[in-house]
């Protein structure tokens, strides 16, 4: 046990600092009994670079990561922040349990974040995510009213919103990109978003009047199916803008 | 509400027909709740997920298809864009790029495509993303296939 008092061990199964049990020269976690225990650098060594690599809280690294991710991805940051909080709880628990052995980390993120400020941060990040999540802004009333109503004259044409087949002679709303939908299917969507459900052709939105042109390219996902479509054969908003009139 | 039910029922019938057409996807609707689905998808070939079968859980919101379904992996998977603990998936079409033309079936296809083409620059699983970003494809493949074996393949014996 003398060893364990000087050296820190990290259990990769429990994701926490542990005091390993040594059986037949095999280190086992004292909580889950697994052997996935790693010796981490002596904290007394005070080599901060080493600590960064060894599961210690590295505040600069984490803040850097927060900053980096924030610019792209707010869903993740909530996750990250939750992760940091969970880890702080584990750390504090560990410190309580092993008050003699585990040395207290030099700086804790909790000093900065726990309390109302931290909650507010989480809250704000969650709200930012909501805005991101819903994609394009609603289409303007004028643009929706200007949509043509057409009679279906093709066989085997489907409204992709309700996946029902159109019947010949039925009335449908047609987007400038010539994609057709039931009026009851298309209009609720255009109240939320300006894009064609099939090809993402953009109707004009209230945001178009803003000084700052908004792009529709804020990639919120790991793999952009949308951008693949845009690069593919689907009609492009720009090439189709003449049809809008 | 009525619209989403009608649409999901259509998808249910479609799924019954497509079963043969796409052997990589098996979509099953909950017996008592049409807003809860599960899917079994096969790991794409020539990826570390090959040979694995991964379970997805779908929670369909009432405004569907105006809003995307919530999908997560129930099977543990080591992938940059899937949260290792919660199974949450980072995929644009499930968030800001959703369109009502997507179906549960096509969402499954998109997830299979994501498995074959990880996007390490927006990682939910940083360890996995960092391996790829540092160019350690071998390390990534080894970890991903280890977890495929551990979690996505039937236990032997």
Automatic annotation (TrEMBL), chain A:
<dbReference type="Pfam" id="PF13639">
    <property type="entry name" value="zf-RING_2"/>
</dbReference>
<dbReference type="InterPro" id="IPR013083">
    <property type="entry name" value="Znf_RING/FYVE/PHD"/>
</dbReference>
<feature type="compositionally biased region" description="Low complexity">
    <location>
        <begin position="233"/>
        <end position="245"/>
    </location>
</feature>
<dbReference type="InterPro" id="IPR001841">
    <property type="entry name" value="Znf_RING"/>
</dbReference>
<feature type="region of interest" description="Disordered">
    <location>
        <begin position="207"/>
        <end position="245"/>
    </location>
</feature>
<feature type="domain" description="RING-type">
    <location>
        <begin position="159"/>
        <end position="200"/>
    </location>
</feature>
<keyword id="KW-0479">Metal-binding</keyword>
<dbReference type="GO" id="GO:0061630">
    <property type="term" value="F:ubiquitin protein ligase activity"/>
</dbReference>
<protein>
    <recommendedName>
        <fullName>RING-type E3 ubiquitin transferase</fullName>
        <ecNumber>2.3.2.27</ecNumber>
    </recommendedName>
</protein>
<keyword id="KW-0862">Zinc</keyword>
<keyword id="KW-0808">Transferase</keyword>
<dbReference type="GO" id="GO:0008270">
    <property type="term" value="F:zinc ion binding"/>
</dbReference>
<dbReference type="Pfam" id="PF14369">
    <property type="entry name" value="Zn_ribbon_19"/>
</dbReference>
<keyword id="KW-0863">Zinc-finger</keyword>
<keyword id="KW-0833">Ubl conjugation pathway</keyword>
<dbReference type="InterPro" id="IPR039525">
    <property type="entry name" value="RNF126-like_zinc-ribbon"/>
</dbReference>
TrEMBL record, chain B:
<feature type="active site" description="Glycyl thioester intermediate">
    <location>
        <position position="90"/>
    </location>
</feature>
<dbReference type="GO" id="GO:0005524">
    <property type="term" value="F:ATP binding"/>
</dbReference>
<keyword id="KW-0547">Nucleotide-binding</keyword>
<dbReference type="InterPro" id="IPR000608">
    <property type="entry name" value="UBC"/>
</dbReference>
<keyword id="KW-0833">Ubl conjugation pathway</keyword>
<keyword id="KW-0962">Peroxisome biogenesis</keyword>
<keyword id="KW-0067">ATP-binding</keyword>
<dbReference type="GO" id="GO:0061631">
    <property type="term" value="F:ubiquitin conjugating enzyme activity"/>
</dbReference>
<dbReference type="InterPro" id="IPR023313">
    <property type="entry name" value="UBQ-conjugating_AS"/>
</dbReference>
<dbReference type="Pfam" id="PF00179">
    <property type="entry name" value="UQ_con"/>
</dbReference>
<feature type="domain" description="UBC core">
    <location>
        <begin position="3"/>
        <end position="153"/>
    </location>
</feature>
<dbReference type="GO" id="GO:0007031">
    <property type="term" value="P:peroxisome organization"/>
</dbReference>
<keyword id="KW-0808">Transferase</keyword>
<dbReference type="InterPro" id="IPR050113">
    <property type="entry name" value="Ub_conjugating_enzyme"/>
</dbReference>
<protein>
    <recommendedName>
        <fullName>E2 ubiquitin-conjugating enzyme</fullName>
        <ecNumber>2.3.2.23</ecNumber>
    </recommendedName>
</protein>
<comment type="similarity">
    <text>Belongs to the ubiquitin-conjugating enzyme family.</text>
</comment>
<dbReference type="InterPro" id="IPR016135">
    <property type="entry name" value="UBQ-conjugating_enzyme/RWD"/>
</dbReference>
């Amino acid at each position: 046990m003398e060893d364990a008092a000087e050296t820190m061990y990290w259990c990769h199964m429990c994701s926490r600092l542990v005091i390993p049990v040594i059986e037949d020269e095999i280190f086992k976690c004292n909580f889950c009994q697994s052997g996935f225990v790693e010796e981490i650098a002596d904290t007394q060594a005070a080599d901060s670079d080493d600590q960064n690599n060894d599961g210690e809280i590295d505040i600069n690294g984490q803040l850097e990561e927060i900053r980096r991710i924030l610019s792209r991805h707010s869903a993740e940051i909530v996750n990250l922040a939750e992760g940091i909080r969970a880890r702080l709880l584990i750390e504090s628990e560990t410190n309580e349990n092993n008050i003699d052995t585990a040395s207290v980390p030099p700086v804790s993120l909790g000093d900065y974040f726990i309390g109302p400020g931290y909650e507010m941060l989480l809250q704000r990040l969650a709200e930012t995510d909501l805005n991101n999540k819903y994609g394009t802004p609603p289409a303007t009333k004028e643009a929706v009213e200007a949509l043509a109503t057409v009679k279906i004259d093709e066989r085997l044409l489907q409204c992709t919103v309700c996946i029902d087949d159109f019947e010949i002679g039925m009335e449908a709303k047609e987007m400038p990109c010539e994609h057709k939908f039931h009026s009851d299917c298309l209009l609720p969507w255009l109240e939320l978003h300006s894009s064609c459900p099939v090809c993402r052709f953009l109707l004009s939105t209230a945001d178009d009047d803003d000084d700052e042109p908004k792009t529709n390219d804020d990639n919120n996902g790991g793999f952009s199916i949308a951008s693949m479509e845009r690069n593919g054969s689907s009609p492009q908003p720009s090439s189709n803008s003449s049809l809008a009139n | 509400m009525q619209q989403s039910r009608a649409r999901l029922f259509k998808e249910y019938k479609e799924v019954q027909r497509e079963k043969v057409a796409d052997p990589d996807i098996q979509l099953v609707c909950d017996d008592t709740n049409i807003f809860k689905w599960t899917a079994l998808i096969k790991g794409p070939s020539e990826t570390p997920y090959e040979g694995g079968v991964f379970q997805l859980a779908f929670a369909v919101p009432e405004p569907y298809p105006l809003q995307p379904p919530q999908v997560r992996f129930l099977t543990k998977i080591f992938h940059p864009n899937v949260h290792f603990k919660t199974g949450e998936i980072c995929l644009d079409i499930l968030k800001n790029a959703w369109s009502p033309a997507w179906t549960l079936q096509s969402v499954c296809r998109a997830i299979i495509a994501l498995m074959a083409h990880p996007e390490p620059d927006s990682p939910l699983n940083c360890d996995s993303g960092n391996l790829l970003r540092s160019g350690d494809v071998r390390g990534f493949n080894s970890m991903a296939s280890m977890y495929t074996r551990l979690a996505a393949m039937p236990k032997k014996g």
